[in-house]
Amino acid sequence: MVTFIFWLIPSIFVSEPITPWGFYAHSLINRMAVFSLPPELIGLYKSEIQFITEKAVNPDRRRYAVEGEAEKHYIDLDHYGDSALLFLPIYWNDAIEKISEDSLRANGIGPWSAYLTFISLTKAFENKNKAAILRLSADLGHYLGDLNVPLHTTKNYNGQLTGQNGIHGFWESRITELQATDYALWVGKSDYVEKPQQAIWAAVADAHSQVDSVLRVEKELTLAYPEDQKYSYEERNGLTVRVYSREFTEAYAIALNGQVQRQMKKSIKMIADFWYTAWINAGQPDLSTFSKESVEEEVIVPNSKIKARDH
Fold first, then answer.
1. Which residues, other chains included, contact 21 with Cβ-Cβ below 8 Å and sequence gap of 6+?
2. Where is 17: in which H helix or E strand?
3. Closest Cα to residue 255, out of 210, 294, 297?
4. In which band, very low, low, confident or very high, does the pLDDT at 7 lie, cut at 50, 70 and 90?
5. Chain centroid, CA 277 distance in Å
6. DSSP state of 137
7. Each residue of 91-104: pLDDT tens digit?
8. CB atoms within 10 A of CB 56
9. In this structure, are strands 3-9 and 231-236 parallel, antiparallel, or unpaired?
10. In sequence order, what are the residues at sequence separation of 6 or more whose Cβ sits closer than 8 angstroms to the Cβ of residue 257?
11. Of the four, 74, 209, 272, 299, which is 20 to 30 A from 264 by CA?
12. What is the CATH number assigned to the segment(s) 3-8+23-281?
């Protein structure tokens, strides 16, 4: 999702997008996942850690450049009712037999798309294609990170249905901006995932179970904070921007009992596990002979005809 804050200058409002997990958080999540890899993998990933870190945000950049990209970042489970997790098939072919593909895409295909990216990464390992391995690893990290965000599992993704507009960027970006440097994000060594599809859906289910608290706690705190205490103003790039105040942000994070940090750690662990599993499933190819040549930049050109949902 992309939410907006308003840059305040005399008589002018300029909107600035805040992307899912924020550019900073997505990059940090991918970066930390590298350190959970075994010796056979960490050599490649650590030598390319700048690429893995920086390109974590490429899927967001594609949302306004590539048709069909936006729906890969979320799934609106509540569109399908209270029994969505029982109703929806976990396998893509079964899903499109049960529900039209257009309808599925209209409400997000995050879990199925993440698995297809994982399969593509496995094939890249089989082919020992360095460029593809790195690009797909960065992408997979982004998609799995998104699916661990509660607001990526609901049609009320920005609180727009409950009068809480802006909560998406608040939860994902403002909290991490102020607190992530103090998070303990080491998650231990990566593990093999026996059933990747089921693991993806389990993560989605866990994230979705937290939607209520994300919204409820913010609403309760808002009642206790006058607007001039809920928001504050900060100077950024020569402009004065209205943001959630530090006091309100810290109170929200405390009331959520470390939820944002927990979801970041779950993302990091899951990403490392999936990278490792793709390599195992590819037959554990020897990657030590890879050249030191850099990987070419992906060219992403925004397309004004693409109207991605602010998600």
1. 29, 145, 146, 149, 172, 173, 176, 267
2. strand 12-18
3. 210
4. very low
5. 20
6. H
7. 999 999 999 999 99
8. 27
9. unpaired
10. none
11. 299
12. 1.10.575.10
Q: Rounded to an integer, what distance in angstroms lies between the CA atom of residue 34 and that of residue 18?
A: 25
Which of these, 138, 139, 149, lies nearest to 74 by C-alpha position? 149
Tokens of 165: 């507009």
Strands (DSSP E) contained in 165-245 are 231-236, 239-244
- What are the residue boundaries of the structural domains of the chain, listed by start? 3-8+23-281
Burial group, residue 292, by CB count within 10 angstroms (0-12, 13-18, 19+): exposed
> Which residues have a Cβ under 8 Å from the Cβ of 275 and sit 6 or more positions away?
33, 37, 41, 45, 121, 137, 140, 141, 190
With bands split at pLDDT 50, 70 and 90, how would you rate the model's confidence at 222? very high
- Extract the tokens encoding 224: 């206790």
CA distance 37 to 45: 8
Length of the chain: 311
User: Per-residue b/e over 85-114, b at no fewer than 16 CB within 10 Å?
Assistant: beebebebeebbeeeeeeebeebbbbbbbb
Q: How far apart are the C-alpha atoms of 63 and 81, rounded to whole Å? A: 27
For the sheet with 12-18, list strands across it. Answer: 12-18, 3-9, 239-244, 231-236
- Amino acid letter for position 308: A
Q: Let me know: does 306 contact 65? Beta carbons within 8 Å.
A: yes
